């Protein structure tokens, strides 16, 4: 069973190499290889989740060298849970990209590089989730950067190159901070293995521990787009191709959040930085949602809500309680699917009508009722309408905050409720103007201006959508809804994962062995 842990990392890398060798030829084969690879990765991830749930953390040592000499991959409840969800999401996004036929829309874009870059990014995400070593986690982030930069600048347009430059500068700054933290950590402890660090960190002076924790937190906060390190995201993500934007929004920021959850629980439990995390969560929620309310473009509005809802996850981590971690883990799983779904549906709107500006759209509920429903369902889920998983995730966090007590936690609970209401206002306003307002679609092929004069070009060309495109998005929306139906088992699994994290001993024993 332990030998399967490498599959979600190595299989996409192998497939990426094969696809690069194929080049621009046999494009249908390119699509088949991508879908088969991601399907197998999903199947293996499910097997690992079942095994981790029944047997505890599973460990494999790369090259046969045991930790801390070599690098290990660890599959516990938390890592396998997020791995299963990320694998399902990347499979649906790849199906969307295949159906959307970018090779037909962007003739100058190097399609031979899109699929390999996507698979490299997927491998980086899996490596980050499974990594049991800080240096390997750094390598995983660099793998993510290399694949995501190609996807972000795909097509080479001026807007994408500019956004890619901003994204790369922020990523490089984060990587430099990460390297500084690695150097300080290794100099102080003589190891970068997470399990061994968990044993050695309590013996360090408080100033050294605080320096390492703050440096790592700053590096991961940039990657997770936590305020005030979040200004780059709304200007970068909307310019990328829809599949790239969707997977960025669903997964890349969550890798940063996952790293914070893992390290705060394993290396710095209950440290003084917890209070700082709570204030960062407060600022991230409010600044992000206020930015979302002010937007008139669907992609930018969703980008700001993405920033805002990262605050909910940091809220749970900052509480430093089992209930808080349970809520954070549940919310991570929920948000991956919902945010990805919303960006994919927005991509459908853009392909069908040529724009995502709500000032140029209207009456789409009548013109495309299925797209309207596919947007409405995850939008309400994101807003936290009962009894959807978004509501349940927020409820877990509110209960954890009230149980923790104290005015910082109480302030965060109030901010979370306000953020939820403002999120509902932002998405309802966008949906109402784009889908429910006075019809502007008067005949197939054009969208004409209604009585309201926005001062913009009233004509928007429309195109038809492939059936497979709608199927892939519907499947992802259904996956998000399934978390509502399975909320009981999912929250119980999240609670067990949080308990395993806070216990620390199962992880350390699995990696270092009982003889330590």
Automatic annotation (TrEMBL):
<feature type="transmembrane region" description="Helical">
    <location>
        <begin position="301"/>
        <end position="319"/>
    </location>
</feature>
<feature type="domain" description="NADH:quinone oxidoreductase/Mrp antiporter transmembrane">
    <location>
        <begin position="131"/>
        <end position="423"/>
    </location>
</feature>
<feature type="transmembrane region" description="Helical">
    <location>
        <begin position="33"/>
        <end position="52"/>
    </location>
</feature>
<keyword id="KW-1133">Transmembrane helix</keyword>
<feature type="transmembrane region" description="Helical">
    <location>
        <begin position="111"/>
        <end position="130"/>
    </location>
</feature>
<dbReference type="InterPro" id="IPR001750">
    <property type="entry name" value="ND/Mrp_TM"/>
</dbReference>
<dbReference type="GO" id="GO:0005886">
    <property type="term" value="C:plasma membrane"/>
</dbReference>
<feature type="transmembrane region" description="Helical">
    <location>
        <begin position="176"/>
        <end position="198"/>
    </location>
</feature>
<dbReference type="InterPro" id="IPR050586">
    <property type="entry name" value="CPA3_Na-H_Antiporter_D"/>
</dbReference>
<feature type="transmembrane region" description="Helical">
    <location>
        <begin position="276"/>
        <end position="294"/>
    </location>
</feature>
<feature type="transmembrane region" description="Helical">
    <location>
        <begin position="210"/>
        <end position="233"/>
    </location>
</feature>
<dbReference type="GO" id="GO:0008137">
    <property type="term" value="F:NADH dehydrogenase (ubiquinone) activity"/>
</dbReference>
<feature type="transmembrane region" description="Helical">
    <location>
        <begin position="325"/>
        <end position="346"/>
    </location>
</feature>
<feature type="transmembrane region" description="Helical">
    <location>
        <begin position="78"/>
        <end position="99"/>
    </location>
</feature>
<protein>
    <submittedName>
        <fullName>Na+/H+ antiporter subunit D</fullName>
    </submittedName>
</protein>
<dbReference type="InterPro" id="IPR003918">
    <property type="entry name" value="NADH_UbQ_OxRdtase"/>
</dbReference>
<comment type="similarity">
    <text>Belongs to the CPA3 antiporters (TC 2.A.63) subunit D family.</text>
</comment>
<feature type="transmembrane region" description="Helical">
    <location>
        <begin position="367"/>
        <end position="385"/>
    </location>
</feature>
<dbReference type="GO" id="GO:0042773">
    <property type="term" value="P:ATP synthesis coupled electron transport"/>
</dbReference>
<feature type="transmembrane region" description="Helical">
    <location>
        <begin position="405"/>
        <end position="427"/>
    </location>
</feature>
<dbReference type="Pfam" id="PF00361">
    <property type="entry name" value="Proton_antipo_M"/>
</dbReference>
<feature type="transmembrane region" description="Helical">
    <location>
        <begin position="137"/>
        <end position="156"/>
    </location>
</feature>
<keyword id="KW-0472">Membrane</keyword>
<keyword id="KW-1003">Cell membrane</keyword>
<keyword id="KW-0812">Transmembrane</keyword>
